Amino acid sequence: MARQRVVQVVLSCVVLAFLAAAAVAQDKKEPIDLLPASGGPRRTPRLPAEPSATRMELGVSQAVRLATTYNSGLKVAYYNHLVDRTSISEAEARFEPVFKLTGHYGISEVIFPQIFPTGNVLPDGSPEFFQTIVNDKTDNANWTTSVSGIFPTGATYDLQISSDYRDREAGGLLNPTYQTTTLATLSQPILRNAWLQYNYANIRLARYAESQSRQRLRLDTVALIADVHDAYWNYVFSLWDLEVKKRSLEVARELLDINRVKVETGVFAPIEIAAAESGVADRVTDVLVAENAIKDNADRLRRLIMPFRDGSDWEVVIDPSDDPFEQVLRVPTLDELIEVALEERPDLAEARIGLRRQDIAVAVADNESMPRFDVTGQVSWTGLSESYGDSFLDSFGSTGAESWSIGLSLEVPLGNRAARSRLARSRLQRDQALLSYRDLQLGAIEEVRRNFRRVETAVKTIDSTRKAMELKREELRNEQIKLESKVTTNFQVLQVSNDLSLRSSQYLRALVDYRIALATLARSLGSSLEVLSWPIRP
How far, CA to CA in Å, does 533 sit from each of 194, 461, 527? Predict the structure, then answer.
């Protein structure tokens, strides 16, 4: 019996020595070191993939370039801009001259009775006549060419050359005949619909509309860049978070192996194995959730940057080359950021263009409320000859006929309530647009201030979460030592291990949130490039 007792003591010492060695190894093996290694940042983990899989080494700047090149949503916005550009040419076409050519040809026959002498003399000595029906046939042709249009002053013009050809079968003093008339007409409004400001209004409105469309394209581009940064850094976070979850699972499995040995040697009660197995099961679930998050974030990033010429782009494995363990960038002062935002934001630029469009609308409505007073002039030259060329030249010569006239036209609408209502409405809309612009400015300032604070908070959060992670790592080390001395329980060790995993994820989240906060701040300024190229704080 004593001998058996001795054997048990020896075996217990061996087991305890083995467990002590395991505890030392466990103590030396850090749960996960998320801090940058000396000499440079750590490389973002790479996903395992089939050897035949297509891999893409991708930095955030390359992701932005791919997105602005291939993103289908941005292409749709670009086509909207191209469509709006066509309205400029459409408005300018109003001043293009119009050429018109018309012509007619026909034959006309006239039947009438006619008395002709027979050459005989009646008994009373008078000449003898006879009556017959005569058919008089004439070839008729006429054609007209004209050029008409409108000048930028609002004057309408019409230059017309018309010719009338007649060839009478019965002949005549002048046969055939060409009568050619050159007619020039000009009408210039003096009040309503007059002068450059009114007649160029549609062209200026079309150009402003195109400029607004360009600003909307800029806005979509800035939003896309911010979305790419958000998707990229969330994808990076999910890769690192999976490593945290895997390391936590390793700790739980190592603890389960130690507990099984201790239960077999009688050091721990069997219930400790159940607690350890529960901890392993929880961490397996965490790993599965993290793996699924990687797939979701990868798909979101692919959707933004890939050309999708075929379905294989969904299977491209993206290996991020940028990591979140970088130095904090130097952010300009809040006043500097607000000044940049008020000048550069596409929505504010679009609103300013909208104010200019409202000014044009007011000017047009004001012009259309005036009476209509027009001056009209007309001059014509007419020539007659046996050939077309002579008839045209003779119209300007001494044998031609010249006519001219000048006239005035005044139209005063009685009451004019419709025009005055349009003018009042346009002025109210201009005032409304000005107030909307002021509100948009305030919203932009508020957004910049909020995102500026978000960046500052993110910087502080990085420091606090790093400290919390390091303290929790030290606490886990101490709990593992206590477990060897039976001062603590498996449950407490698993709880601290779970807290370390949580703190590690929070630290990673803080690093990623800082990068996303920078991109969001850049978006509120109207550009991402300036923010992300700020010099690194020394």
Answer: 52, 22, 11
